[in-house]
């Protein structure tokens, strides 16, 4: 896996990342740090990446178990250390999974498997942050 980051000098503190798969991601800093607030902060992208990683796991685990999944949302909240480096110290992930005839048991199991075994992003973040999660199951209309 690889990624190249380029500073976009004429855009304040904007950074352009090009991933090994050829995708582009823009990040920016807060105005008080010289940024222009044109894109997410780097730490927000890290948080989003962790959410995407675990959501991917949950959907895949449920689909492999032949559950009728039609939606998955992960609402994340994070707290950071006050001193540099301002690592994440607490993360809470609230999963809202929608499906036809979907029970809470398999969803909770999929979330737990993601955290315990499959999600490399939350495994890394778990070294500095206390990670908690909750599950909500919605029936598809």
Give a written overview of the molecule.
It holds the Pfam family OsmC. It comes from Ideonella livida. This is OsmC family protein. This protein is α+β, with helices and mostly antiparallel strands and 141 residues long. The protein folds into 2 domains: 3-33; 42-139, GMP Synthetase, Chain A, domain 3. Helices cover 31% and strands 35% of the residues. It contains 3 helices and 6 strands, in the order E-E-E-H-E-E-H-H-E. It has a 3-stranded antiparallel beta sheet with strand order 1-2-3, with no helix packed on it. Strand 2 (15-19) and strand 3 form a beta hairpin. Helix 1 (42-64) packs across helix 2 (104-118). The radius of gyration is 17 Å and the shape is elongated. The N and C termini lie far apart (40 Å).
Topology of helices and strands:
Layout: E1 3-7, E2 15-19, E3 24-27, H1 42-64, E4 68-80, E5 88-100, H2 104-118, H3 120-125, E6 130-139
Parallel strand pairs: 5-6
Antiparallel strand pairs: 1-2, 2-3, 4-5
Helix pairs in contact: 1-2
What can be said about the biggest beta sheet?
3 strands, antiparallel
Q: What share of residues are in beta strands?
A: 35-45%
Architecture of the largest domain in CATH?
2-Layer Sandwich
CATH superfamily of the largest domain: K homology (KH) domain
